Amino acid sequence: MVAERDRVRILRDDEDAPELPIVEHGGRAWVVVWPGLDAHLRSIHHISLEPGGRTVQLEHPMESVYYAMSGSVAASDRSFDRRLELSTGAMAHIGADTRYEFEAGPDGAELIGGPCPADERLYSHLEYERRPHPPQPAGGDRVAARGIRIFHRDQPTAVVPMIARDARLIVWAGVGAYTANMNYVDMQAGERNKDHVHPESEDTIYVLDGKGSVEDLTNDVRLEFEAGDVVHAPVGVWHAVSGDRDDHIESVGGPCPADWNMLRIAGLMPDMPRTQE
C-alpha cells in the first residue's frame, strides 16, 4: 500500500485543526499544511484576525510568503522599521531572518501562508512524528533579500499557459523568491494543465473558489476538491489539475522551492543551475 506521504492528498482548511500561538490578541491561527501532515517544503497557516488584531513578532531562518484572502492588514517590518499595507489579493514575501508581525485593519483580515520550508520551531507545542528534513535542493543556496516586499495577484511579472490560460507568477524566482513562491491561477471550466512532476519541490494549491479534480498519475487515482481544500502533491509524484466539474478553480500556491526545470521549459529562467537538468 502506498503511504499517505507518497501520494497526492486533499487537505482541508479546518478551523478545528491544531492552533498556533502566534496571535497576540484579537484572533487565532491554525495549521493547514505542516510537517505533522508530512509536508515539509511549504507550510500554510490560516491567520484569522479581528479588527485591530495582531500577531506576535515572528522571525524564521527561511523565506516566508502570505496571501491576503480578505480584509486589510499592515505588515510591520521590524528589521528595517517599515510598515507596509496589504489589501485583498496582495502577497507578502518575507526574507529569511526578518522580524515581522501583522495587524488587521478596521474590517479584520484572513491570511494564509507561512515559512518555506516549514519552521518546525512553530510546532514545538504539538505532538507529531518528526522526520529528517529533506535535503537542500540544487540551486537552493540562493538567498533572497531580507525584509518584506508586497506583490499583488493583479500585477504578475510572468504568465505560464502550461498551467492554465490565466496562470500568473507573482512571488517566484524571477523576483528573487527561491523557496517561498506563490502563484495565482484562475483555471476555467474544461481546462486541464499538462501532466507534470516536481523532482525537488512540493506542489501545494490552496483552492479559494470553485471546484475541480486532480489526477495522481503516479498512483492512478483521481481526487475531487472544492473551495477551502488544499491539493498537496509530494516531491516526485506526477499529477495534473482539471476543471472538469463545470466550474472554475481559483487558487494560490505552487511548487516550493522554485522548480528551476519547469521555469526553464517555460522559457522564463534560461540561467538554470546545471545540476537541475
Would you write up a description of this structure?
The chain is mainly β and 277 residues long. The strands form 2 sheets. Strands 1, 9, 10, 11, 12, 13, 14, 15 and 16 form a 9-stranded antiparallel sheet that branches. Strands 2, 3, 4, 5, 6, 7 and 8 form a 7-stranded antiparallel sheet that branches. The longest helix is centred in the C-terminal third of the chain and has 6 residues. The two termini are 31 Å apart. The C terminus is likely disordered.
Question: Main traits of this protein?
Answer:
single chain, 277 residues, mainly beta, nine-stranded antiparallel beta sheet, 1 helix, 16 strands, globular
Computed structural class: mainly beta
Sheet having the most strands: 9 strands, antiparallel
* Radius of gyration, in angstroms, nearest whole number: 17 Å
Task: Determine the N-to-C terminus distance.
Answer: 31 Å
Strand content: over 45%
Low-confidence stretches: 273-277
Number of helices: 1
Order of helices and strands: EEEEEEEEEEEEEEEEH
Which term fits the overall shape? globular
The percentage helix is under 10%
Helix and strand layout, with pairings?
Layout: E1 9-12, E2 23-33, E3 44-55, E4 63-77, E5 82-86, E6 90-94, E7 100-116, E8 148-152, E9 158-159, E10 167-171, E11 182-187, E12 202-216, E13 221-226, E14 229-233, E15 239-242, E16 249-256, H1 260-265
Antiparallel strand pairs: 1-14, 2-3, 3-7, 4-5, 4-6, 4-7, 6-8, 9-10, 10-11, 11-16, 12-13, 12-14, 12-15, 12-16
